[in-house]
């Protein structure tokens, strides 16, 4: 079985390598394109102030992204119960409180459970938090032996000891490098994280996770305009925020949603569609996240929809190899977060995610922030590597590859203290 798992991983890696080899990484081959103006409605009317943006411009963009990119949540499902299943007042060498909360959702004979792992600073009575998903289980972000191992389906990763789609003790702490928990705690900010596979397993299968709770009659998968997995994961982040509104140890008005890669796409959509999030961080989110689609650099709409057909709604496939037909682009997704603080980050070696396209998206979104007298990115010239621009709209490109590093977290923490928590 292990040989089979290794063979599957090898085939997947080769498929990704082939697709990336075929991608465009040459700026001279980026097609000529015209970006839609976020300060013009679809029928060409100018938006001249924040009131008009909020009432007209924002709503029609949100509707388009909902119906044609991420998909509509086809109903409402509230938390049936919330229970603290484990806690400690003496975590992280006495610096923090640890809480593990199980949220349960019920409909008919269906039940869904996901667990929020929280580390909260002892020094703050009602803590602001970074809220974000992890890829392989809450137990992977820390070596803390008290953190519960999820029983949910997981992508195999033999190097982490994950085979047969099951998480094990062997994978405890394998992703501590991506979560600077003690730096957060020292800054007076907590962390809340969820294993994304508990909300919706990351595979092209809509018979599991949260989707079937909303099916009618003999429906087997979402309709063309209904949610894919990114929208479902975003839904889960909003349900965590619902819980924080009832929980005295977290400041529900200071929850910053964070995500890396596909979960960076998720954090952006969560922040755009749920205005309760106080700030939004996108780390190496690429196509369908912060990067401009019309540049066709690195990963493209067609490639992402063929490789991961479950992430977006089916309507998004209308723009496969047809980005020029999109009446929107991702800078307008970022604009939906205005006037709340936004941080977009890239990595120099992560050309698949198109760092320049991510930066330009933040730049072009900034004109909407201007309506609210919030400072964004003021020049279309990319900053030097490892020299962040930190305003209400912030950006950095760091050395290294597609990952989350201490450098990233140091910038996010400083930005959060200056832009969100003041």
Automatic annotation (TrEMBL):
Which residue range or ranges hold the 4-O-methyl-glucuronoyl methylesterase-like domain? 184-371
The cross-references to InterPro entries, in alphabetical order and at most eight, read: AB_hydrolase_fold, GCE-like_dom
What keywords does the record list, in alphabetical order? Answer: Hydrolase, Serine esterase, Signal
Q: Where is the signal peptide?
A: 1-23
Alphabetically, the GO molecular function entries are: carboxylic ester hydrolase activity
Chloroplast found in the keyword field: no
Q: What is this protein called?
A: Acetylxylan esterase
């Amino acid at each position: 079985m292990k040989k089979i798992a290794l063979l599957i991983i090898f085939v997947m890696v080769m498929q990704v390598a082939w697709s990336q080899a075929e991608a465009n990484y040459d700026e001279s081959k980026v097609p000529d394109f015209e970006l839609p103006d976020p300060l013009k409605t679809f029928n060409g009317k100018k938006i001249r102030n924040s009131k008009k943006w909020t009432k007209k411009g924002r709503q029609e963009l949100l509707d388009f992204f909902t119906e044609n990119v991420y998909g509509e949540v086809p109903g409402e499902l509230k938390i049936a119960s919330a229970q603290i299943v484990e806690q400690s007042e003496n975590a992280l060498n006495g610096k923090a409180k640890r809480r593990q909360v199980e949220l349960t959702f019920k409909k008919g004979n269906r039940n869904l459970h996901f667990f929020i792992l929280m580390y909260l600073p002892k020094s703050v009575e009602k803590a602001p938090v970074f809220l974000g998903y992890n890829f392989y289980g809450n137990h992977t972000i820390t070596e803390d032996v008290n953190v519960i191992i999820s029983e949910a389906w997981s992508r195999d990763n033999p190097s982490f000891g994950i085979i047969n789609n099951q998480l094990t003790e062997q994978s405890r702490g394998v992703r501590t490098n991506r979560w600077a928990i003690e730096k957060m705690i020292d800054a007076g900010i907590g962390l809340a994280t969820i294993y994304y596979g508990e909300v919706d397993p990351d595979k092209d299968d809509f018979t599991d996770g949260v989707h079937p709770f909303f099916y009618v009659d003999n429906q087997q998968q979402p309709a063309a305009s209904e949610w894919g997995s990114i929208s479902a994961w975003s839904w889960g982040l909003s349900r965590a925020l619902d819980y924080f509104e009832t929980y005295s140890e977290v400041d529900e008005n200071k929850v910053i949603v964070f995500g890396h890669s596909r979960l960076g796409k998720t954090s952006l959509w969560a922040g755009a569609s749920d205005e309760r999030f106080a700030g939004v961080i996108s780390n190496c989110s690429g196509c369908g996240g912060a990067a401009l689609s019309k540049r066709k650099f690195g990963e493209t709409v067609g490639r992402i929809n063929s490789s991961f057909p479950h992430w977006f709604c089916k309507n998004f496939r209308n723009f496969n190899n047809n980005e020029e037909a999109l009446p929107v682009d991702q800078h307008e997704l970022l604009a939906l977060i205005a006037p709340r603080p936004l941080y977009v980050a890239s990595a120099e070696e992560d050309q698949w995610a198109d760092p320049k396209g991510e930066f330009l998206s933040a730049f072009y979104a900034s004109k909407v922030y201007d309506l609210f007298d919030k400072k964004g990115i003021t020049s279309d010239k990319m900053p030097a590597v490892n020299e962040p621009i930190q305003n209400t709209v912030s950006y950095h490109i760091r050395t290294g590859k597609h990952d989350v590093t201490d450098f990233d977290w140091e910038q996010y923490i400083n930005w959060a203290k200056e832009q969100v928590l003041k």
